[in-house]
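ok so for the tutorial part 2 we go from a plain amino acid sequence to predicted structure tokens. step 1 is just haveing the sequence, like this:
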Amino acid sequence: MSERSPAPGGLELVEALVNTLDLETGADSLDTEEGRARLGLTEDDVPAARELRESLRATLLAHAGHPPHRPVTPLGELLAAAPLVVTVDPADGSAALAPAREGSLTARVAAAVAQALVAGTWSRFKACEAADCHWAYYDRSPAGRGRWCSMQVCGARAKMRRYRAKES
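step 2 — the prediction. this is what the tokens look like for a chain of 168 residues:
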């Protein structure tokens, strides 16, 4: 739904996962082979991926100052099951956190969150406040107070609702 640029760094993976579900239409790309392949998932991985997706969505709503959209497993509990290791590049000595198990989506998400924490980008990663959207987006606004994934769609709808409510 968003016309915004993708989230920076590893958050692009997290954004892609959260945005697999279109709340307005109910379409879930995890239901398709192509949608699962984009995230490196098998059909057996889908239930855990959906649980992770909704925990991430609740966390991103919290970043935007909103309550969870529904009861979810806390993100910290899910990420605790995803061990990370410190890798050191022998060429330049740079260090990074990486998944201990390469194929694990949860571990890849945990590494992306850790990278975003270090980079200072995690708190600007949010979910749209529109109840029929909750699309993930990276807030690049100067003050960090973005509210919608798209000003032209969700923002315009919200402003029109407020205007109509005043006129009634």
